[in-house]
Amino acid sequence: FGTKTITYDGFTDNDDGELTAYISNSDANAVVVKLVVKDLDGNQKASTEATIAANAVNQEVSVGFGYGSEGTKYVKVYLYDANGTEISVSGPHDIVVEHSIWKDWVTYLVVVIIVIAIIIIAYFYIRGAPDRAAKKAAALEGTSKSAPAERTKYDAGSSRKSKRE
After folding, report:
1. How many degrees, rounded to 5, is the angle at CA 137 between CA 134 and CA 141?
2. Angle of the 129-142 helix axis to the 105-127 helix axis, nearest 10
3. What separation in angstroms does the CA of 16 have from each of 5, 145, 153, 156?
4. Can you tell me whether residue 110 is helix, strand or coil?
5. pLDDT reading at 156 higher than 70
6. Of the candidates 98, 91, 96, which has an alpha carbon nearest to the alpha carbon of residue 6?
7. Residue 90 to residue 101: CA distance in whole angstroms
8. What ranges in 37-147 are assigned the alpha helix state H?
9. Tens digit of pLDDT for each residue in 82-135?
């Protein structure tokens, strides 16, 4: 392993998280390693293979896995070479698995109530649309233009007669 501490992030009882180990290689050649995460009972949670560059310092190797329940979980991280020989062990590491609100039925109930409320509001808004259209038409009726006044054509050659005649 490298000089940096193993980190983890994103663990909830509903979603997988990611564990990141930092691996150094003092050899002049690149090496293939296998990173294995096991719980304290020895059950494998996840594994991945990575090629560590020659003379690499703290090269990141990440692996994702999850738990179905919240709480503090303990794991050990094992590092094997390409032949399956154990190189190093780190741990135990405690992983805090947070509770996800999406596992609660109350969350879904609230979502359903909000959707129903939106549907009801939309229904009454649409239902009132003819009334609004009628009110709008009535308001415009009072401001509508009256019939245009009769227009007379101007004839340049004729003289205008007064209406008094």
Report:
1. 140
2. 30
3. 20, 70, 86, 92
4. helix
5. no
6. 91
7. 32
8. 105-127, 129-142
9. 899 999 999 899 999 988 877 778 878 889 999 999 999 998 888 876 676 677
Of residues 54, 50, 74, 57, the one with CA closest to residue 4: 57
Closest to 25 in 3D by CA, of 49, 48, 50, 59 = 59
Angstrom distance (rounded) from CA 19 to CA 95: 9
Q: Note the residue count of the chain.
A: 165
Q: Are 36 and 3 in contact (CB under 8 A)?
A: no
* pLDDT on residue 107: 79
Categorize the per-residue pLDDT at 69 as very low, low, confident or very high, splitting at 50, 70 and 90: confident
Residue type, 92: P
CA distances from 72 to 20, 23, 55, 104 (A): 18, 25, 35, 20
Position 161 scores a pLDDT of 55
Which residues touch 82 (CB under 8 Å, ≥6 apart)?
A: 31, 32, 33, 34
pLDDT at position 162 is 52
> CA 109, 115, 121, 123 torsion: positive or negative?
negative
